[in-house]
Amino acid sequence: MKVGIYTLGCKVNAYESEYVVDLLRKHNYDICDFNDICDIYIINTCTVTNTSDIKSKKIIRQARRRNKDALIIAFGCFTQANPKLDMDEIDILLGNKDKSKIIDYIEEYFKNKNKLIKVYNDLGTNFEDMYIENFGTRTRAFVKIQDGCENYCSYCIIPFVRGKCRSKEFDKTIKEITSLVNNGFYEVVLTGIHTGNYGVDINTNLCSLIKEIVKIKGLKRLRISSIEITELNDEILEVIKDNNIVVNHLHVPIQAASDKVLEIMNRKYNLQHFKDKIKYIKEIKKDISITTDIIVGHPGEDDVTFENSINDIKEIGFSKLHVFPYSRREGTKSSSMEQIDERTKKERTKKLLMLSRELEISYMKSFLNKELEVLVEVNKDNYSVGHTTNYLQVKINEPIKHNKFVNVRITDIDYPYCIGEIINK
Fold first, then answer.
1. What domains are defined for the chain?
2. What is the pTM assigned to this prediction?
3. Which of 319, 293, 313 is nearest to 391 (CA)?
4. Residue 392's closest CA among 241, 253, 289?
């Protein structure tokens, strides 16, 4: 049977989809392009914003229109948040639990031809074990080490759809990463819903895990998908400082560059703490790239607050901003607050996106005429594209083998690329 799978949302979803693909292949299902005429369509949904909800429903409906007789499966955060979702297109509706049982559910459906709804209010305290030995055609492999979040930021629905913090067993994590490296993956990304909280439930921590991972023979790069400023303690910064396997890039969500808004958001730090920590990181790790998430138009963000935020963002010196207009999520504290109009949010979003481009280009220019190592990810007839350890996207004007490291000199900027010239072959 032909199966097409579509993934919305975060790196955790990408990992879980890859796990499902691996399961299906092992049971002799034929994995096809989602846009093909398939017998089964699987949609891994997202609910982080209203736009995510709309897109999740849109993709589900597209699948049904493509083949009215296909089996349609939807799971993930959107379906977890909407267990009574009234969509005729869905035949099997799961939430964020029992994705590892998808083969059983498919077989049950074809046996009985009855719609299945398996969404649980209690997601449990155990980590749903998933294990991947290969990660498709990607160069960079994701490994999900953690699930759930208990921060309950005022704007965020994710703790309600992902449940309590729970972690992958330490030894199983090391085994999985070792297997991926042995299968040719030089770069691994640790991902989770609250990655920095890894180990809180199993008597360990992220720092201990990283110290063990960097010992794995053959691993060249280790990334952390995202980490909170409050979790960048002295111990973990010491590891980042002294180990070349840990990449020269950190994604640290600030969400708001305003003490007033941070307090309303129920974030666990103030602006000065964030500034001081980033300044220290830049002192101990030369040329590090610090990227961030920022929410625009959260309740409490007035014009003065927003304009001051721009100055503070410039002062911190991020190399890129991931900008998200605030999206009202029913059931969160922020949803009951006075809302900012959509036009204002749109205007502020545009300003921050322009600022992000300025910051990116400024950071890219700082590497002109410098030598960097690139891991090639895209190979075309007359050019290649890859990333450096500090996550610069480099275009090389000649074909280079996929998954190969090359040393380049940055000769020009052609946004969003740095242009690299090979200095050894």
1. 2-118 (3.40.50.12160), 124-247 (3.30.750.210), 250-366 (3.30.750.200), 371-422 (2.40.50.140)
2. 0.96
3. 319
4. 289
